[in-house]
Amino acid sequence: MVITQKKGNLEYLTAEGISAPHCFTTRLGGVSEGYLRSLNLGMSRGDDPENVRKNYAILGEALGFDPKKAVLSRQVHSNIVLPVGEGDWGAGLYTQPLPDCDGLVTNTPGTALVVFTADCTPILFWDPVTGAVGAAHAGWRGTVSGIAAKTVEAMRACFGSRPEDIRAAIGPNIGACHFETGEDVPRALLEALGPDMNAFIRPQGEKYYVDLKAVNAWVLRRAGVDKMDISGDCTVCQSHRFWSHRVTQGQRGSQGAVIVCREVWA
């Protein structure tokens, strides 16, 4: 189950199955102004960088992580996953950005991984056995190319994580109620992932509605991960709480999906 948490004006979501510090943020509880009001976590949205850093400080205090140890992704709708560690602390927030990627994994204690969304699907990963964590941004192209499974594979290859031990959480995204597409998205899903995708595609006239949460859950199960929490929230239906690229036509901030590798895990 994914649960809403509130600390003062700050509002974010957490998954019951993940014990490492983590969250899916909303747009509420920060200091950004204008069309970016208020909890914008993206450094590339036209915000004052100091406001963004203050937003990370607010979030870090609530979750218990040091923003200077955060590692921000540099997303390109790919299935590229990068292992990161202490040498990458501050990337994208205080130091130079990482190379292009849509997934991050680490087993370095204190490291906070951050991926961004504003309709796409955020996915967080935690291995209670090794302590490794991961985060992935799954746009529809990343979903088609298996970014969720690639993140699981990176945790296995880099840290010895077993898929059956990993807990995953799928956060708020544009739901099947609003993800209207042309024929290109269903065709790509069917070509890449096979006829099982028909269960997640609803034709309506010349358009289609696609359930990206369900597709990513299917990809995770095929990768061996069957312990997961899935948010029911749609960023379009609840655009007062979440940044939505479609609703704002691009005039928006970014949510963050954040997970921290703990010093000690259970």
Describe it:
The chain has six helices and 15 strands. By secondary structure, the protein is an alpha+beta fold. The protein has one domain: CNF1/YfiH-like putative cysteine hydrolases, CATH 3.60.140. The model has no long low-confidence stretch (mean pLDDT 97).
What count of domains describes the coordinates?
Answer: 1
Q: What value does the Rg take, in angstroms? A: 17 Å
Give the mean pLDDT: 97
Largest beta-sheet characterization? 6 strands, mixed
Percent range for β-strand residues:
25-35%
Q: What is the CATH topology classification name?
A: CNF1/YfiH-like putative cysteine hydrolases
| Architecture (CATH level 2) name | 4-Layer Sandwich
Name the CATH class. Alpha Beta
Q: How many E-type strands?
A: 15
Q: How many helices does DSSP assign?
A: 6
Annotated CATH homologous superfamily: CNF1/YfiH-like putative cysteine hydrolases
Q: Helix amount, in percent? A: 10-25%
Unreliable residue runs? none
Give the overall form.
globular
**What is the H-and-E element order?**
EEEHEEEEEEHHEEHEEHEHE
Produce a short descriptive summary.
By secondary structure, this protein is an alpha+beta fold. The chain has helices at residues 49-63, 140-144, 147-159, 184-193, 212-222, 245-248; strands at 2-7, 10-15, 22-25, 70-72, 81-83, 103-106, 112-117, 121-126, 133-138, 167-170, 180-181, 201-204, 207-210, 227-230, 255-260.
Output the keywords.
266 residues, alpha+beta, CNF1/YfiH-like putative cysteine hydrolases, six-stranded mixed beta sheet, 6 helices, globular
